[in-house]
Structure formats: C-alpha cells, structure tokens
Fold each of these.
Amino acid sequence: MTQQATQEGLSTPTSGYDPSTSIIEIDHVTKSFGSFTAVDDANFSIAQGEFFSMLGPSGCGKTTTLRMIAGFEQPTSGAIRLDGTDVSRVPPNKRDVNTVFQQYALFPHMNVFDNVAFGPRSRKASKDEIAKRVPELLEIVRLADFANRRPSQLSGGQQQRVALARALVNLPKALLLDEPLGALDLKLRHAMQFELKRIQREVGITFVYVTHDQEEALTMSDRIAVMSDGRVEQIGTPTEIYDNPASVFVAGFIGQANLWPGTVTGRSGETADIVALGGASLKGRCQSEALRSGTDAVLMVRPERITISTNDPGPTIQRVRGTVVDLTFQGPIVRLVLHTSDDTPIIANIDPDHDLPMLRPGDNVWASWSTNAASVLPASPDHPLTATDVVDEG
C-alpha cells in the first residue's frame, strides 16, 4: 500500500521510499520555552516513504520536534512544511499526519474493526470504502482474525497494531510515533521492531519515530537524527552513524565505544596521527577539517573491532600493549577489559571461539585494530572525557 492509494481501496504494497522527494521539511526551526531552548536551529528534511528516527536522551528535543510536526507546538522561529506547504501555524486536526503515542487510547467499548473504522466514519467515508479499507489494514497488521475482539481481549503488541491500523487507515502523509514500544516488555519490544518496519514498508507511508533506544533506531530506520541538548548532532543511515560518528556524543550514545583522549600530531588527507593510550602513536580516519597538529582529539574504536593476541602483531597494524583486568562471559561474546601503561581501559568484545589461551587477570596481551576501524574525533567541551571514562554503554 502506498500513499497513492485510491478512495476505492489500498494499492499494491511497496516500500514507497523515495530519497529524492521530501515530505517533511524542518527549516531552521527553533523552539523556546521562556529562556530555555528545547530545539536549537533544527534544519533537515524527511523523505517520502522513509522510516526516519529521532534518537537521543531525555530532554534532547526529539519529542518537542515531533510535537511541532504534529501541530501540538508551534516553532518560535523557522518553518515546518508538509508536502511543500507551510503548516507551522496550522492546527493538528488540519494537518495530514497522525500520531501514535505510548498509550494507545483504544475505545474499550468498540471491537477492533470499529476502532480502526472510527477515522473513516468520522470523515463520512462510504460503507463500501470502509468495508474494503479496514480489512486490508487489519490484514497488513496481522489482525484479520481479531476483528470482533475488544481491546481488553488483546495482548499489548496486538493493541499496538490496532492503534497503528487506526492511525494509518486514513492514509496520512506521515505517521508520527512517540516511543510507542515503551510500554511493552523487552521480548515483545524486540519482536515489534521488526513488525513496525514490515508494516511501514507495506503501507509505504513516511514514519517519523521518536526513541531513546539506540537498538530500536538502528533496527528500523532508513536514517537517524541523533540529538543532544536541543541540537541535531548528526543525520545518517544506521551504518553511517555507527561506523562514522561525527562527534564524541554520537560515538558514545550509539552502541559501545572505546573513547580515548589524545593529541593530533599530524594529518594526511582523511587520516590523522594521534598520540593516546599512554603515549602510543596511532592512526585513525578523520573527517573533521578542524583537527590539525597540536589539537586535542578523541580516538574511537568499537570493542568488536579489536583483536586480542598474546604475540606482537607487528608495526603494520595499530596496536597497544595491555594487562588483562577482567573477563566476562556474555553469551555471544566475551567482554575483555585491559589496562594500558597509564591505566587507560580498553574494552574488547571477542568471540568465545577466538583462538586464545585461557586468559586470567594479570596476563599481558596485545590489543590491535585496523586504521579503518578507528575514528579521530574533535574533543568536545560539552562531553569531556577522562582517562577512566572511555566506554559509554549507550
């Protein structure tokens, strides 16, 4: 089903994602509440048919941005455009978007069919149109066999899918989702991540998703906007955000990351030389033009990109000598903690089948990684690091 569905019914399912066509434009939007700036000069667009997530900690401005798109808040400055039309001062009921919240607010006295049919009936759709469109939506959300049940007879995940079908049945230009999985238990939340993405691909409608859960964003999104203190730190695909973070905050918030303070000693194109980890001379990919010789920086390496060996791997690879201080079995990985000569910790996630002798605290080993696995990032006064604060669990 795409947004081009006709009044007679829903068209053939397709992804509908068109990166070249913007459906929502956030044009230099700032939102202030008195002296507090909740959103600071947000400037980005969301494509037709895209699953777009706004990710960040509590208070970063993601929900305020979503509420401005929905019309529940108005920008202090800037403009919000929906399909090319400025809707910055248009009330919520006049915008062609729907919102799904954590609390699904289903009508308890209505069955599933009538809950989903409520919107088309409110818009005076014909009985034939309702009789065609509602079952098609229930089929997509896999609730066709539950049409006659009341919400109290459904599980949490089923209730959420009813709320999704009710929000989608009027074919809005975008569906806004404000942490809709937050009320579900962990196992169901994981299952619903894949269900949400499947539903979004089938209906072909733009989803704008707010979450503080990095796994949700990485699993479902076409692109992610990572926000901090009201600012958009970086926008990119999950792979871009994870492998090429633009800042220390993004590197630490998305997944686990070794973050080691150091000093840039040279630059050659997109590779920077940096002294870190007790004086080791290392290299890493560097995208910031501001990082020149003598500037403070942070070296980032993901724990799963680190190889542990008892023999020196040689000078052709980035490597540091360390002492084992802790080993923790975590099922699919073993979490290994080393300390370098200056007591800087190194976290390595290694496969349990990794060909290593039995290691114990006090053993000396080598930690190594490729230059492409390391990023050199600008040091951030907003997110300072110390020698003992190098891994953020996200």
Note: DSSP finds eight helices and 20 strands in the chain.
Amino acid sequence: MFRRILIANRGEIALRIIRACRELGVEAVCVYSTADKDAPYLKLADRAICIGPAPARESYINIPKIIAAAEIADVDAIHPGYGFLSERADFAQICRDCKIEFIGPSPEAMAKLGDKVECKRTAKAAKVPIFPGSEGAIEDEEEAVKVASEIGYPVIIKASAGGGGRGMKVCHNEATLRTNLRIASQEALAAFGNGAVFIEKFLEHARHVEVQCLGDKHGHAIHLFERDCSTQRRHQKLIEEAPGPLIDRKKRDATCEAAARLIKTAEYSGAATVEFLMDEKQNFYMLEVNTRVQVEHPVTEMITGVDIVKMSILVASGEPLPYKQKDIEIRGHAMECRINAEDPEKNFMPCAGRITTFEPPGGPGVRLDTHVVTGYTVPPNYDSMIGKLIVHADDREQCMNRMARALREFNVGPIKTTIPLHQRLMENADFRKGGVDIHYLERLLK
C-alpha cells in the first residue's frame, strides 16, 4: 500500500479521497488554488500545497505544478478524482515517467477507451453493441454526408476526445449537418485540444444507462451493475439512480456482462464506467467509457456495499480485486440528487457567494457528500456542484419518498440551489413511474 497520496482535485471529491486514505492508513496531500485557500477540507489533509491562482489552467490542470507538488511532498501516487486531469492519458504517462503511480488506468488503457473513436473499435472487438456510424474520425464534409445518408437521419456529431455536451450537435438533415460539422470541430478543439469528431445514429427517445466496472492489474474485471442517469439537462446529469427502473433482467445482465468484458479486453485497472443509450425496446448501444471515478459513484456503493474509491487505490497499489462477480448483489434502491449552486428559475444561472445557512438532512438511509459548511464561499471559478444527496431504501418508491423527505430538510442560503427543482421532480408523476428519457427534463422545464 502507498505511504502518501497527492489528491489532484478539489471540493467534495477531494474530501471523499481524504476519507478513503484515512481508512486505509495512507497520508493525504491536497493541492489547492488561491480560490480554495480557506476550504475546510484542507484541514483534514496531512498537508496542503498551494499550486497557483484561481483559473484551473494555472492550478488544477497545470501538470508541471501538480508534479512539482507531488515531488515536494514525496508522494507515492496521485489520485486525480474526476474532471480536471482525470482523463488525460498524457498526465498518466508523465506520472509514470516521474515514478509516481497514477491512481487510474494505464496510459495505454486510457488512450484505448478515453478516445471515443478508438473506444468504439475496442468495443467492437469485445462484441459490445455500438451505434451505427463512422468507423473513425470524419475527415471532411462529404464523408460526413455520405455516412449520414447511409445510417439515416437524425444523426449526432460528437467530439472524439471529450464529452459533457461540448462538440456535440444533433442534425436532422444534410443542411444542418454541413453547418454544424465545422462548429462542432471548433468547439471540440477549444474544449479538448483535439478537433476530431465522428458521427453516430441519434436516438430520439433514449434512456442513459451506465455500468460501473472495476478492473485490477491481474487481469480481473467485474461490474457493479447499472445506474440510470436519464434525468439530465444539456447532457449534464442531475439525478442518478440504481438499479435502473423498469429494465428487463436479461437485458440488464447482458449489458453489464458486456461492459465488464470491454474493461477486461482493454486490460484496464481501476474504476471505469461504460455508458450506454437504451432505445424504447431496451436495446443497448455503447456511448462512451469514462476512465475515472464518476460523480455518481455513491449510488452504486449504496446498493452493493463496495467502496469504489478505496478499491481504486487498492488496485493501483497492485492488490487484486477482493471480489468475484458472484459476490456482487443488488441490495435495495439508491438515488442521488446533485445539489448545484444554480438558479433553475433563471436558466440555471450559477450562484457563487457566501453560504450563511447550511442545514444538511439526516436520518436513516441518508448520505450527503459535500465539502460545504456554514460560512463557506462558493467560488465562481469552478463547477457549481456543492454536494450530492444520496438516499437508500428497500425499493424505488420508498427511496423517492426518503429523498423527498431529505430534500425538505435540506436548507441552504442565501444562494440559490437546485434543491427546489429536485423537490418538484420527486413529486412528478412521470418521474415516479420511471423510464423517463434524456429529453424529459428539457420538456418539463419548457
């Protein structure tokens, strides 16, 4: 096991990793920007090192500064969390070159699964269902038109090197395809430093279902079943739950097994999430692979009892997975609401500022992952998520009732948050029935 780990992240995921380190008897070193200098979680680390000013490019995604901090603190490993440098194969390679263990996949496995075009090739080899579309990156406009005519409209243009809706355009005809191809490529280049895009068939009424997987350095890979992440806005998830509601047992098993097979084929170690879109007949098509721990990992932890963050550290240190597939069972139902410092009434405008009231919920089956306390100031420089409210119960109906109760108890002010929107969703008849698609929330908010 490692002696000391540097956490190359901030906020609730930094705190989550500190806690995992504590329970493993490992020292935790945090880095922070000047915007986070007063963050309460820094006091829980064994050491905290300032790496620069507020802009992420000058701090949290500045690789030389991260490596310098790791060398100053004499760490054995770096945990990237999610976002920032977590899916950068070049960062994983630099860690390797500096003899620092990257807590995540190897640079080779990350390159194989992190790039969407290469990932599709690997999935095809592993016999994982994929969307019809271009074999690789689109080279020119005429090739795009040809592919679209073969698979039929609507189609979607996607960035090869990233996600989160950037570089992504839905096209219903040739004219919009020609117009959007250049725009998508420029967006991808600006966001990810790579303008490569590809084309896939677009599902009008899809559900977003993802499978949590774990792999180790001994060739073992397992799945921890699926999560439904269909309640989202502009490709950003708001609510995640596990297991996915109304999914046929045989379809679930086949999809989860395919996901684990893909991870094993890629010789992947660490936590990974294989994302799928599911059509109205519950046919699954692989969307992408997130080569890191996910924001919504607590949902899976609640239904399986597996500590995903601890497992990522253990397997990075060379330990084999302590579980076989037969050991993993679904226990009850779990749901997570992302609490963002945003105003849903004003098109989700970010609401940075000082929090003077912070009264978190509690009681049976309630978990709150947050770095926020009363008096904390939400900086305007980063993602607006201030916490994740997770609940667990025996079944989905009880889980929604418990979430509704917890949301009523949760009081944050004076800044605006997404708590009222989540309360509204817990009372919505369509949401309570399950099976909402990825455009459900956008229709609801019109």
Note: The domain at 4-103 is CATH 3.40.50.20 (Rossmann fold).
Amino acid sequence: MPFSNHELFSQELDISQRIYLSPPHLSGEEQGFVREAFDTNWVAPLGPNVESFEREVCESTGAKAAVALSSGTAAIHLALRLLGVGPGDIVVCQSLTFAASANPILYQGAVPFFVDSEEASWNLCPNLLDEALSRLAAKGTPAKAVISVDILGQCADYDNLRTVCARHNVPLVQDAAEAMGSTHRGVAAGRQGAFGIYSFNGNKIITTSGGGMLLGDDPESIARARFLATQARDPAPHYQHTTFGYNYRLSNVLAGIGRGQLRVLGARVAARRANERLYRELLAGIPGVEFMPEAPWGISNRWLTHIQIDATKTPRNATSEDARLALEARNIESRPLWKPLHAQPVFAAAPTLLNGVADRLFERGLSLPSGSALTPPEIARVAAVIRETLAG
C-alpha cells in the first residue's frame, strides 16, 4: 500500500471533484474495436464484434453458448420465455434485488413470489426457497422457475439452491448482472443455473454503455434466444414470422466496447477488491459498522463496497441515511441497498415468504464509491466523512 492510513487521512480533502458510485472505466483497448466497426461500416446491429464478443465471453467463463443483448433485463425475459413461463405461472424471485430481476416475470403475465435472503451471502435463502416451493406444490400451483440474484457481486449459495431446485424439479435462472468476474467454487458466476445473465450497464464492472448477455450450456436454447431477440424472423428471403420476437440484440459498435472491456476484467476485479480492503482498514474500529461478508464458497468481484450501519451502536447514533446525506454534502455519491421488492408498491399484491433479513439489510445498508479507477486519496476522502458522521 503506497500510503499509510495517517497519510491518507491527513491529505487535503478537495470537494470540488465529485466522486461517483461506480463510473465507467475504459482501458483504451475499446477504441480499436470501435474504430474497426466504423472502418468496415459495421455500425448497424450485429456484425463481427457481436459474434466475437459472444465467443470471448464463452472462452472467459467456460459457458458453451451466449447471446449478446440490449440489456440484462432482456436476458432475464428471454430466459423465462425459453422456460415456458406464461400467464398465471408462479416464478419465485429473490426479494433483495433491483426491480429489473422481477419485471420480466410481469412481462410474461406471470406472478412473482418473493423469498427472503440468508445471512452468509445476503442472497436467496435455500431453506426458505425449499419451504416456498413445498407450499406451492402442496397447493397444486408449483413454481415454474426460480430467479436467484448475486447482489453486489457475491454469488448465492448455489450448492444448496441447486439441490432444492432439483428436488422440486424447478429450473434456476441466475441473475449475475452484478457478478461478472466473481466465482463460485472456482467456476465463473453466471454458470450456476439453467441460464445465466450478465449486465453491461454503465455502472457495472465492465460496460458496453448499455447491454447484457444470456449464457448457458445448451446451445440449442441459446440459439432459440438469439432467434427471438432478432424479431423472430424466419429464415426466408422475405419477412416471415411464425411467432413474435423482440428487438433485443446488441449493436456491433457497443460489442466492440465490450471486447475491449473484457480484456481488463481481471484488473477491474482486482481494483475493486483492493478498494474494499482499503475501506476496511480506514473504517476499522467504528462501532456499529460492518462490511458485507464474503461467503466461503466463492470470490466476489466486490462490484460495490457495502457497509451496514447499526445506529444503536454508533457513538453518535447516526444512521446510514445520515452518512449518505453527509457524503452528498461533500459531493460524494453513495446509495442505499436495494429496497426489497416485497416492499415496492408495484409488487404489493405479490405473495411472499420472509424472515426479516432483507428489510434489516435495507434499513442499515449503504454502498460506497467503488469505481475501479478510484484512488486511495479519494477513498480516504469518503472514509473521513463517514468517520466524522458516525464517530465524531
């Protein structure tokens, strides 16, 4: 570490430059692939960069097939359609996540059933999932699919989740939108379910500006997803459609950005993990502050460094919202943890099985600036505000 904690805290804190939560971090390699797209006039959707990006993601993750799409949400939507989810079907979904994990359930006219998290990873609880699937089966309305989410880059407990899903004969969709570069038992995140989903939104660990990917080990299913994502156009010289599709493919220009980003994925993961380690050092010893644990079954990309603030234990009884407002006043962006979907007005009528973990994590949670280009003095600037707010 090039700075000691004392040196970091003693530096002048310049609030004129805003510190963002998770801004894009380009490597320079992206320009070559984008320039090639322009030079060859492949600026329309599809093209060599798209095909190469899909192949290179497969090579990086070990997946047998992948299709590049306009968003991670589109990937979830296609996964549910491939699994035959339709009107009135029940899809069990993790509650502690962004709405994009569950919105595609509604696209298909299905019913979300929200299940709470467990403590080790903050992700879908296997025991509650087992109970939920058992209840649904006993009512004669078995779940059609399960959606787990790897929040903040940490993989869920897939050893147990897959066992539960197999016992109930329900397919598992893995929303690894935040977890590219993470691993579970040494296997790339996104490989643990029937389908895996990545997001390349501008705030993700690598970006294509906007985009996503659906991957899996059944090439025929991925080929079907590619067909549906291209307006379900039949192989005919004229425009013919035997089913309806979507305009979900990623453009060749954006895929070029993705190819350049993919080449530095390992470095981006290393940088974000280093950020989290430095935050731990600088915030050590503050009563009531805890960091997101790293589950023993994997390595998280630490997409966002996240802390929990228990106001009953902090010296000044300060809350996570107090810390967020103090950071914002110093021109620093931070964000509460996802408000659980069972507490969202749009899903107010959805059935649930809860244990209180998601609600507690939301109440106390705060995600800190975590960009891979963040410098140690910038992290110290963030930490100093938190220390001042919580401990005085």
Note: The chain has a mean pLDDT of 95.
Amino acid sequence: MTQDKPAPMRHRFGLALPGAAQGEQARRLLWPGGLSARLLVFTVVFVLVAELLILATSLATFEERWLSDRIYRAELGVQVIKAVGDNVPTTSQKKNLQDSAGIISLSFQRDGIKELYLSPPAVMNTPYVVDLRRSDFIAWLTDPIRTLTSKSGSNVRVFGHTRKIAGENYLEIVAPDAPLKNELISYVQRLLWLTLLISVGTGALIYFFLNAFLVRPMQRITLAMERFRADPEDPSAHIEPSGRRDEVGRAEIELNRMQADVTAALNSRSRLAALGEAVAKINHDLRNMLTSAQLASERLALSPDPSVASALPRLERALDRAARLTTEVLAYGKSAEPTPAPVPTRLAEVIAAAAEDAGLERNGVKLISNVRPRDKVRADPDHLHRMLLNLIKNARQAVSGPDRRTPGTVRVALEQTDEDSIITIADDGPGVPQRTLENLFQPFAGSGRPGGTGLGLAIARELAQAHGGDLVLKRTGPAGSIFEITLPGLAEPEAASVPPGRPRSSSEPRT
C-alpha cells in the first residue's frame, strides 16, 4: 500500500507552492506578512516608544509642581504667622499650617539663620530628599521613579526657594509621600491611556495614508510582476504607468519597459527557434539539391568552351559556400556560430568575390576599393566573405533604390594600426532610417526596408565579435552610411612596412 502524498498548496494564479513557501505562509499566521499590517504595527510601536520617552519628563514636571505647591503653601503660612506678630506659632496655628500645606515639619532659613516653625515628631521614618534648588537633569528625571517605588508610609524632605521674600532664603519641609504617590499613579494611568489613544490614532492615519499612496501601488506592481511571470504573453499582465512622478511612477515605467523588452526577446527567440526548425527540415533536401548541382558542375568542367571554363570556378565556390551555409544557418538558429579559424587572407580577393555575389555589376553600382592586391588581414576567409557580402549587399540596396535616378557608389578601404585591421564600407545612399537605429543589430528588428529580415547585420556583427573584433555604424545621414569592421591582429606583410607606432593606411605606397 502506498501512502498518498499531500496535495501542494496552490498559488493565487494556480501555481503549486513548494514546501518552503508553505512554511512561509504558515509563519504569516503568527506574524503579519503584509506590508500594510507591518506598517500599522511598527507605527503604533514607534509612537508608543516616543510617548514613553515623553512620559518620563511629564512625571518629573508633575512632581516638581506638586512639591513646589507644598513649598508655596508653607511659605504663605509663615507669612501669616509673621503678620500677626507671633514669633512662635501657637498650637492652633501649627495645626492649621500642617493641614493647609500637608506637611509634618517646617523650617525657614533667612539671612543665614534657620528658624524652626514646625518640629518633626519624635518617631518618624527617615525621609528621602528632593532638592528643588538644584539643576541636575538626571536627578530631576529619576525623582518620580523613587517616589513611585518608595515603601508605604515614607516621607519626603523638600528644599525649595521662597517666592515672597527676596534673597538667598529657602524653606525645608517634610511631608508624607502617600498623596504624591497616589496622584502620580493616577496621572500615569491617564497619560498611558492618552498615549495609547494617540498611538492608535496616529498609526491608523499613517497606515491609511501610506496604504493609499505607497502600499496599494506597490501591490499593483507586484501583482503585475506575478501575472507577467505566470504568462508573459498575456497582454493584460503588462502594467500601465499611472503617470506619477515619484519613485513609484518610475518603478511602473521601468517595469513596463522591462516587460516590453522581455516580450520582444521572447518573440525573437521564438522566431529564431522557428527558423532553426525550418532550416532543419529543409536542410536534408537542400543538401541533395546542392549535391546534384555539384555533379552538374563537374560535367561542365569537361566542356571545351572557354567561357564555361572561366565561370566554372565561381560556380564551384558558390556551391561550396551554399553547402556550408546550410549547416551554419542551422547553427545560428540555435544561437551558435562555428568558431572562426583566422589565417592571413588577401582582402582584395574576398572583396571582389563578395561584390560579385552581392550583384554590384548587375545593378550598375560602382565599387571603389582602396585595398591593394597584397594587403592581408587575419580572418576566417568564409566568415570574412559573409561579413563583406552582407554589408556590400546592404550598401548596394541603399544606393540603388527606386528614388535614385542613377546607381550610387560603394567604397571599401583598409586601415591598419599596430594591433588592428579596420575595414570601412561606405555608401552614398540616403542613410539608415531613424526608426531602425535603436535595433540595428537585433535579429528580425533591424531591417529598414520592406521584406527585410534584419539578419544580415546581426550575423555580420556576431561573426566580427567571434574574431574578437566588432562591427559598428560609424556615421549615417543624408550623405550616406559608413560601417567599420575591426579585426584584431595583423597578417605578416609581404613587403617592408612603415615604421611601427604610426597608423598605416592601405592607400600609402609600400615597397
């Protein structure tokens, strides 16, 4: 008997969640996983912490006022006793002073002389001291804590300056701290409730504000990302920017661009895959056709006609290249080019063959080459032929368009430095259209003419980069376009070269 496995949890979009995701979702039951809930909790906690810091100063201020009030009442009692002319208060006056000020004993220091008005009882707990004359901030903050933590029946001795009598005079009173402690506890309770109310209210306001202006837009962006990941081909999964000018708006714009780029890349990959599949299907039949053509060329080699004999080598080279291209195009459909084998190659011969295959003579386009017969570059001959064929063919199409009365000119030049060979292909056509410049070297996206596939420049650049060089558009405009192929390394010269360190142009004479 086999034990049934538990069914995996399902995502909101129907995707199975792994075990780690299930554990994460279970943990969210104990801790708020959403940004909104966490925002509310943290806001309330932070406001509570701030209010508790304010609570300490509030309690210190409350106790200082309460004790200052007792000092002021005792001072008024002393003033009343002195007003009636009694230096020694009577028993009734002492009783009234104790009841009105809420004190046990009282002494008054004036002009350095201490006068005792209310004697402390014979038996009394040792009081703790609170000096209102000092300016110690730490002691001021900790005095309420000492009052709240004091034992039952404790007394407090308070020193405070007089208000009515000028000079360095002060009163010293001893009072029970029970009334102060009770009022402090009541004040703390009221303040805590007020703090909690403010914290919850402030947290709720901040929560709703940030939820509307931050959390919900981020949830919208996250939802769009999840839907796009689940189905990149779904048009509704693409986010529409809201037009905001803050960071959220920028995130929406960048996500929209990223989704468009990924969709374009997926479409390009799909077309490349379809191309590879199509080439794989026709590759076998095309090879059979090329084999038959090669057999026919061998029979033509037996012909005594001189014109046939002169054209036969070109036919054989074309058939050989076609046979190799059937395999290499299939490799390109799989996003891989064969590794080049660079050798010293006569550039003039490759230019002549590429111009002939590109149909320059048949279309009346004039080719001007500044490359001399002995100039060489280090390159794979077949790859170099393909690069030049694509570029010269594109140039021929640019200068022989329907809007031109007469065909134009294609110029090819070579410049060699100490490390690189730079091949320049220039035309006097109308230039590359502005709409195609951004995707000029992208497969199926860089064509600027109807019916073009956009593969020519993409293949040429990939071949140049496989050599360690590059293909770039140096300049374009109404006067024409200039492409440059950079190939690293130099071929051994057939004759003496110019002194090293100075760039050498193919137009300079060599000996």
Note: Residues 174 and 468 are 95 Å apart (CA to CA).
